[in-house]
Design brief:
Number of strands: 2
Oligomer: single chain
Strand content: under 5%
Helix content: over 70%
Number of helices: 18
């Protein structure tokens, strides 16, 4: 009977994990479509799908989230402190109103991201399995929608940003874990990452360029680290190929920089955020720096021409273009310290105390996120931030770190065996 109960519990955890990722995907795709200028009736339909996604996410967490999945005592203590601090940030100045609640639920940057770290409480093997499945599906969806939506991809900044965030991140995950996937899946994922890099370069989105360049760079580092000395010829050939690609890419950029890439050529060295940062620093008191201004915290920025998402005084902004500054605005330096006390040891464990590519690539994903938090890296209710926290859970999992690559493939990526 105990074995039957255990089997039922395993099946339930697998279904809940799948349901959770379904929920986040539905929410993200709905938000992506909602960035287009569509009719109010259709927008209401989109909001309904966002609600369904949130419901699936919540039901999955309530059903199968267990603190027993965290075996590392240090991680468990700091994680509890961080989530406790998140509760303080949420409740410190929470205002109940229909306008605020609607905004909290439909915008990924204000409220929902506080719950994303809880994904580490789900079994890592199921999460890796279903996330990799969805990564592949989103890669395919990227190609399917690319031509029909090209007008908006190359014409509307917000849509193009969300397009590569939602549909391109899965490709980054796959190429970082390339040895667990077939050659066809690797090639398709690599093309998606390159196309994503092209899109954000064309749209002059420097922070996203850094992200997708980081996926390529980190994959190259892992390849060289995991290729044996006997394959030195492969390494040399790869180096030559990379040099040719870089030279070719640079020559192509030069040939069209005044037409296709005119925006990024003009903005490459422009400091477009100086006024925002000055306003932010002037408005933050010593107390604000320590404990933050709470979830509804704002800063006075009269020089920025921007409509407030909550319909309040447009001189006050809820977001600051920089992940670390955003975390400080809401939860202070205390929030950042707790965050780094979790992330930095995870990198060490994943890179230097593991036997497989999966945990090392997870550490690389953490590094990429920490770097991205300088130009953007905004905590959000999306696949990319969820992947960051999952990667932390992987790096703290001593069992996963001890597995060989063959065991990882069987345990975490059975769908691709």
């Amino acid at each position: 009977m105990d074995k039957l109960d255990a089997l039922i519990d395993i099946e339930k955890c697998a279904k809940d994990t799948n349901r959770l990722i379904w929920g986040v995907v539905i929410y993200c795709i709905s938000y992506l479509i909602g960035t287009l200028e569509i009719q109010p009736d259709w927008l209401l339909f989109i909001r309904l799908f966002q609600g369904i996604g949130l419901l699936l996410f919540a039901m999955a967490l309530i059903g199968s989230a267990r603190f027993s999945t965290i075996s590392d005592r240090y991680f468990k203590i700091v994680f509890i402190l961080l989530m406790g601090w998140h509760c303080f940030v949420i409740l410190s100045n929470f205002t109940v109103s229909s306008t605020f609640i609607k905004t909290y639920l439909r915008e990924p940057y204000y409220f929902l991201h506080f719950f994303v770290p809880l994904v580490i409480l789900l079994p890592a093997n199921f999460f890796a399995d279903y996330f990799s499945r969805w990564s592949f599906r989103l890669v395919i969806l990227f190609f399917i929608l690319f031509i029909p939506f090209s007008y908006w991809i190359f014409g509307y900044q917000t849509f193009s940003e969300q397009y590569v965030w939602v549909l391109g991140v899965g490709g980054g995950f796959i190429i970082l874990n390339y040895i667990y996937f077939s050659a066809k899946i690797r090639i398709l994922s690599f093309i998606v990452v390159i196309l994503s890099l092209f899109i954000c370069t064309y749209m002059a989105r420097r922070n996203i360029m850094l992200t997708f360049s980081g996926y390529l760079f980190a994959t190259g580092c892992l390849y060289f680290a995991f290729t044996s000395l006997s394959d030195i010829i492969k390494k040399i050939m790869l180096c030559l190929l990379l040099i040719i690609m870089l030279i070719g890419g640079y020559l192509f950029f030069l040939s069209v920089q005044d037409t296709v890439f005119s925006d990024i050529s003009d903005r490459a060295l422009v400091n477009s955020r100086e006024d925002i940062f000055l306003s932010y620093f002037e408005d933050m008191s010593e107390r604000d720096w320590i404990i933050g201004k709470g979830m509804d915290g704002t800063y006075y920025a009269p020089t920025v021409d921007e409509e407030s998402p909550f319909g309040t005084d447009e001189d006050y902004r809820f977001l600051i273009e920089g992940g670390y500054l955003q975390v400080i605005l809401k939860g202070g330096v205390i929030n950042v310290l707790l965050f780094l006390l979790i992330a930095l040891p995870a990198i060490k464990k994943g890179l230097f105390h593991s036997n497989n590519l999966f945990t090392k690539s997870s550490a690389m994903l953490i590094i990429l996120w920490l770097v991205d938090m300088f130009p953007w890296g905004m905590p959000a209710f999306d696949l990319r931030y969820m992947l960051f926290w999952f990667s932390i859970g992987v790096c703290y999992n001593s069992e996963l770190r001890s597995f060989s690559d063959a065991e990882i493939k069987e345990y975490c990526f059975p769908w691709f065996n």
